[in-house]
Input
Amino acid sequence: QVQLVESGGGLVQPGGSLRLSCAASGSIFSVNAMGWYRQAPGKERELVATITNGGSTDYLDSVKGRFTVSRDNAKKTVYLQMNSLKPEDTAVYYCNADILAFGVGWKAYWGQGTQVTVSS
Output
């Protein structure tokens, strides 16, 4: 069974930094695109950043220049370095990955979510 386990959320002051991690585990044959979404209270889930297995990245306009997505293919882990955090970045952050699992085929998996709160 494939799982995505996130870590690194928390409370930070405006202007601060946090680093999120998400590790995939289980009977995995291959991992394609990985990324991060977020959902603030009363709002729809939105795509924050994605990275392909070749390293190509894409970002939500409002986080460009502040957030950096990266991955370690050997560890099947994706990271989100968040700098210059703003109160409007407050949300539950979810990782997502397209995974080829033995006996399952290609499927999109989600992490359990980690809370990021930016407040003074």
